Amino acid sequence: MTAEAGYGADLFERAQRVLPGGVNSPVRAMRQIGREPVFVESAAGCRMTGSDGRSYIDWVCSWGPMILGHADPDVLAALGRAASRGTSFGAATEGEVELAEAVVDRMPDVEMIRMTSSGTEAAMSAVRLARAVTGRETIVKFAGAYHGHSDALLVEAGSGVATLGIPSGPGIPASAAATTVVVPWNDPEPVATALDSHEVAALLVEPVPANMGVVPPEEGFLSLLRELCDRNGSMLVFDEVITGFRVSRGGAQQLYGVRPDLTVMGKVIGGGLPAAAVGGPRRHMERLAPAGDVYQAGTLSGNPLAVAAGLATLAKLDPEAYARLGRLTGRLADGLGDIAPQHGLHVASVPGLVTLFFTDRPVRDFDDAAASDRAWHARFCRAMLDRGIYLPPSQFEAWFVSLAHDDEAIDMTLEAAAEALEQTAKSEPAGGLR
Predict the structure, then answer these.
(1) 56 an active-site residue?
(2) How many angstroms separate the CA atoms of 70 and 42, rounded?
(3) How far from 324 is each of 210, 271, 327, CA to CA, in Å?
(4) Which of 141, 267, 322, 373 is catalytic?
(5) Is the model's pTM score more than 0.70?
(6) How far is CA 356 from the centre of its chain?
(7) Which of 58, 187, 239, 261 is labelled catalytic?
(8) Cα(268)–Cα(322) distance, integer angstroms
(9) Which is catalytic among the residues 56, 146, 256, 390?
(10) pLDDT (tens digit, 9 = 90+) per residue, 144-179?
(11) Is 146 among the residues known to form the active site?
């Protein structure tokens, strides 16, 4: 890959000598769009500045946690107060109790939580707890869904029928993936077949998938999943790492009125610092040690800085904030929706999340999303960066709307998108990767 002057090329060369691929998380490398990563120097509100001094309107928002925008004054003040008392104790604090109380107040079917430092840990803990509660081992997940990189959940399979998972890469034992069944999203029959054919401990669901791009559930689909789990004695686990406290005050379970058995939370709950949690009814959560016999632990779980940032963030997410977030999301999605049909593209959104799909077919599952023209998407992302708009460098990610975005930022983004689409479009219709 050729280094691009002015985009931190020297820094990237240094990074590649000491970090695998030059990054600490793969998507940051921007290989999907054929260029070097942007190295960020600072950020405030909805804008961030690269190490080259260039300014960008940020639609990644740290992949979701920065729902208030970057460097929110109230969050920074809370962090300062917390840091002055000490940054980590490895002991219980009042702050973690207060954050748990705030979450319980918001999430419809969460009575207790156990905090972790990452969504991967929380999802892994939810699986272990579900297996303990049900006495079963098999897990069902949806093709295109991402629940962290633990062995049992990082599997892939064809999404045409219910298929036993296979390892998605080296280092994952086949035995770890063998108890995971993968089914297509928004398709009732394969889910029913999987739950009827296996002794299923848990059905893991992103209630609004955002790791294949935003693909909302079709009407009644989440309710059907609840019914199927009840019928088969399986636990319904909502992975709300992305949707939690973003699509509504109580997450997707409140938005759609479907109550899971366990909920995985992350991102917003830490206000931009590493924090996540698994939550659910007391009868399930008290199976976790030391109350029960299911072991789970973490030195930095409930870290006082992350707890302080999370509390300060949740405190500002009131009804007015969600109304504003919905309006901003609508403006962005509607604006893209005015542009996209001219190029045969599609836009999907829910409050706080938007995806522009580079495909001429409606997207209802991962196969539809995978038909997107990723080469065109890559050209578009590069053209948007040239115009000062920072987008997720993957077709299979959401744009994250924050409360710091404003009409000016949206207008600038839509103007840039119209120009970038004209610049990068080819005469043939959108389709697969060219």
Answers:
(1) no
(2) 9
(3) 21, 18, 5
(4) 267
(5) yes
(6) 16
(7) 239
(8) 14
(9) 146
(10) 999 988 877 877 643 333 444 556 677 877 777 788
(11) yes
